[in-house]
Specification:
Length: about 375
């Protein structure tokens, strides 16, 4: 029986669309996590020669084949074209919905206003030894099918969306077991050899691939070319500064490492990650006042709740406090050292460093009290 004068809310329906190739290690785990929360599963295979299709066949009757043409956007657009439900969800084979996020997803399905065109979700990319998220960003994950939003980009493709966007608290968790590390770099190199003009986004992601392969000098060249365009997304600009600092660190070039840490401040207020980098530099050079300044600034930096760029939770929570404990201990301010160790302990209570520091500092405090 429905309430008088009120139309019951109609739940949305969802097609899951995925492209896969040789994913026998992860695909079952992924599909088990979503099979009860979506209404349709579309799997497009781009050339598997392992047991991927056999495993997928346990979940669905039909698998679509797509001839691989070195273009991820083309494959994803084809997968989207096969969907029949109201909304489309996309995942990679090494992604999962944890139980808490399955529940949140079902809640969204039952309550989402049909005027919403896009639902973004968090993407958990890194974890510490205690299972807490260390790196996270946001992605557009669920889109209205009738909008025909296109995937763009042969590599590191993105979904071009507009309209009414809802930023949800649902998280997709990335759990890779292996990575075909040469695939993306090869595609970029082939495009480069053909004389293709790289967009600013291409320059940035090509530099990322070069860095992943420890080709530091070439990575530096393409990050610098990316920044020189002055057309990059601000989060990519900040990330490029971070990765340039990484490159120069690996090349033992401290001057340029510092240059790009400071350059990041051109694109926004100092982020906790860069403050911690500067704190670490001064700590290693026994410049305690400077180290304390930067680590304290890191503790005061704002923690973006809906950042679309990479969020480093370690630098925004326990790490600067643990380092302040070290700094204050070295200059004999034991009470402050103890205070910051305890603050760090609120974030990582089981960490052995917290126990060690607490025991050591307590003894120093007791000694000073008895003198």
């Amino acid at each position: 029986m429905k309430e008088c004068g009120r139309t019951p809310h109609k739940p949305i329906t969802v097609s899951l669309c995925m492209i896969v190739k040789n994913e026998e290690q992860t695909i079952e785990r992924c599909l088990l996590s979503v099979k009860d929360i979506v209404d349709e599963i579309i799997i497009v295979d781009t050339g598997s020669n392992d047991k991927t299709k056999e495993i997928v066949g346990r979940f669905i009757d039909k698998i679509y084949d797509f001839t691989w043409i070195n273009d991820f956007a083309a494959a994803r657009n084809y997968a989207f074209s096969q969907a029949t439900q109201e909304y489309i969800l996309w995942l990679d084979a090494d992604d999962v919905f944890l139980p808490v996020d399955q529940e949140l997803f079902l809640r969204i399905k039952s309550t989402l206003n049909h005027d919403i065109d896009v639902v973004s979700m968090l993407y958990n990319l890194g974890f510490d030894q205690y299972g807490k998220v260390t790196f996270q960003r946001r992605r557009n994950r669920l889109v209205k099918r009738e909008k025909n939003y296109p995937w763009i980009g042969a590599v590191h493709e993105y979904l071009e969306v507009n309209g009414n966007i809802l930023n949800s608290t649902i998280a997709v968790t990335h759990q890779p077991l292996s990575h075909d590390s040469g695939r993306n770099l090869k595609i970029y190199e082939e495009r480069l050899q053909k004389g293709e003009q790289f967009s600013p986004r291409d320059l940035y992601y090509f530099a990322n691939e070069l860095l992943d392969h420890r080709l530091f000098n070439r990575a530096i060249e393409y990050y610098q070319r990316f920044l020189a365009t002055k057309q990059g997304w601000v989060e990519d600009n900040i990330s490029a500064c971070s990765k340039l600092a990484d490159c120069f660190h690996n090349l033992n070039d401290v001057e340029n490492q510092l240059k790009y840490i400071y350059m990041s401040f051109r694109y926004g207020v100092p982020r906790a990650e860069f403050c911690c980098r500067l704190g670490y530099y001064h700590l290693n050079n026994n410049q305690m006042d400077e180290a304390i300044f930067w680590y304290k600034l890191a503790t005061k930096s704002e923690k973006p709740s809906d950042s679309w760029g990479m969020v480093n939770y370690q630098c925004q929570t326990w790490l600067p406090h643990l380092q302040l404990c070290v700094c204050y201990s070295r200059i004999g301010q034991i009470e402050l050292a103890y205070e910051h160790n305890e603050i760090a302990g609120t974030f990582i209570p089981e960490d052995t460093r917290i126990y060690h520091n607490r025991s050591y500092l307590k003894k120093l405090l007791e000694t000073s009290t008895n003198q």
